[in-house]
Amino acid sequence: MADRIAIILAAGESKRMNTKLPKVLHEVCGRPMLAYVLDACRQAGIGRIFVVVGYNKEQVIEQYRDCNDIVFVEQGEQKGTAHAVMCCKEHITGFGGQVLILCGDGPLIRSETLKILIDKHTSEMSAATLATSILEDPTGYGRILRDSYGNIQGIVEDNDCTDEQRKIKEINPSYYCFEGPVLLDALDRITPDNAKNEYYLTDALHVIIHTGHKVMAVTAVAAQDALGVNDREQLSRAGKIMQQRIQHQLMNNGVTIVDPDNTWIDARAKIGTDTVVEPFTYIHGEVEIGQDCRVGPFAYLRDGTVLQDNVVFGSFKEEQ
After folding, report:
1. 22 and 168 share a domain?
2. What is the pLDDT of residues 255-281, one digit of tens each?
3. Which of 78, 82, 174, 226 is the S-S candidate for 133 at Cβ 3.0 to 4.6 Å?
4. Whole-angstrom distance, CA of residue 273 vs CA of residue 70
C-alpha cells in the first residue's frame, strides 16, 4: 500500500453561522463535524492526519489533543484553500506518497467514497484525482470543466463562473488526492488571480493539468453527501441526513424504531438487538441500551445512561 496522509482544512470562522465556536466543532447528531471527517480518513486506512486550524484554534486542539494520529498546523491568516495547504509545506516536503485533502465542515463524508477516490488515483497512476458529484442545483459549488472526450480541464469557482458555466451540474465537493511532490510544485506556481484574491486549491489542479500531468475525476460522491455546512440551516439539514443514517444502521442491526421521524438518537449511542424505541424518544450522548428493551414513548435518556437487557424505560410507570 502506498504511503498516504490527509490534510483536513478546519481553520474557518464561518461568519454566516454567527458563532464564537470554530465551525468544525458544531455538532451533527451529538458529534463535532470534524469527528466524522477524521473517522472517514481512519476507516480509509490513513494513519497520519494534518488538521489546519485557525479561528479559535485552541478549542479544536483541546478537543483532539489525545489523538496520536493528528498533527495540528496553524493558518494564521486565511487566504484560501491552497494557502491552508501551503501551511503544511514543511510537513509534506520530501513526502513521496499520496496526499488527500478534505474539508472539515463536510460531516456527510463516507469512507467508502474515499476508498473509491484512492483506488481510482492508484489504478490510473494519476498525479491528481478528485471525486465529484452531480447536483440538480449546483449553486455555490465549483463547476467541473471537461472537454468533448470527458477529460477534466479544470474547475471554476462559483463566483468566477460565466453564465454558461453556471449551468454545469457536475460540482467539486472538495475530495482531492494528490501525489505529494506534484502538489508541492503546483502550490509554488499558483497566484491569487480571482474574485476573492485568494489562493485556490483548484488552481493547483489547473497547474498540474497544464504541466502535462495526468488528472482524473471520478463521479463518486452522492448528491446528499456533497453538502458542506456554511450556516445554521445547512447544519440542520446535515443533522437530519445523519439522523436517517444512524437510524437506518440501527434498524439493519435489529433495533425497532416505531416512528423514525419523531425519534432522535445520538451518533454515539449503542442499542442491542430486539430493542424497541417508541415515538418521541430522545437519546443523547454515550448511552448504552441492551437487548430486548422497550424505550419510550416520551423518554429522555441522558449521556452516560446504561440500560441492561430486558429493561422497560418510559416516562410513566403503569400499575397492573
Report:
1. yes
2. 999 999 999 999 999 999 999 999 999
3. 226
4. 35
Same structural domain for residues 117 and 165? yes
Look up residue 317 and give its three cell numbers.
Answer: 410507570
Look up the domain containing 147 and give its range.
4-226
CA distance 302 to 283: 7
Residue written as grid cell 443514517: 245
* SS3 at position 43: helix
Is 167 inside a domain boundary? yes
Identify the pLDDT of residue 316: 56
* Domain annotation covers residue 72: yes
- Amino acid (1-letter code) at residue 281: T
Count CB neighbours of 146 within 10 A: 15
Q: Total structural domains in the chain?
A: 2
CA-CA-CA-CA dihedral for 140, 146, 148, 149, to nearest 10: -140
Nearest partner of 228 among 84, 17, 4, 5, judged by Cα: 17
Q: Which helix (H) or strand (E) holds 42?
A: helix 33-43
Give the list of residues 6+ apart from residue 248 with CB closer than 8 angstroms, or none: none
d(CA 317, CA 77): 58
Dihedral, 23, 25, 30, 31 alpha carbons, nearest 10 = 120
For residues 55 and 106, state if they share a domain.
Answer: yes
Residues 78-116 have pLDDT tens digits of 889 999 999 999 999 999 999 999 999 999 999 999 999
Task: Return the closest-CA partner of residue 8 out of 62, 76, 63, 87.
Answer: 87
